[in-house]
Amino acid sequence: MLNTASTPVQPQSDACTFALQKRAEKRAAAEAIGVDADFIDAMVETFYAAIRADDLLAEIFASRVHDWPAHLTRMKAFWRSVLHNSGEFSGNPMLKHLAIPGLELGHFVRWLDLFYATLRQLERHPEATGLVAGRARMIADSLFTAIEMRRSGLAGGRAGRELPHA
User: Fold this and answer.
1) Cα distance between residue 97 and residue 163, in whole Å
2) Domain count, the chain
3) What's 123's domain CATH number?
4) How much is the pTM?
5) Phi and psi (nearest 5°) for 11?
6) Domain of 114?
7) Could you write out the three-class secondary structure of 83-133?
8) pLDDT of 98-128, one tens digit each?
């Protein structure tokens, strides 16, 4: 096979083809229950509006997010990557959160409470709410556990067990 520059083009490997197929299946399954790009956009916009109005979390975000439209665009790409396996997000949320002093269990509980309230408000399908809520909890657990392990070593390894479920 030749491309327009007359150099050989390698066919996709079986692993690459398999990965692309699985990515497409994950996206199709999410979209079948209403977790499409429009839902993700609405979820991010609604959730961060709640964050910006929250007594506990607003200041944490306000002191770090200086360009809200850019942040929302980035968070939409993040959630499309999480929920559709789109691969469009690059970054290290863990390092960003580890750099925030004073984050405690209560911050993550509030974050999840607002997230779950957003999902209930926008709910299209109970299975969609379960899917997205499960991913959000997994992310919160991972971030909080890493923070606690940095503070307490292995003793922080189960820090996220107290986080609420949807």
Assistant:
1) 17
2) 1
3) 1.10.490.10
4) 0.85
5) -65, 155
6) 14-162
7) HHCCCCCCCCHHHHHHCCCCCCHHHHHHHHHHHHHHHHHHCCCHHHHHHHH
8) 999 999 999 999 999 999 999 999 998 999 9
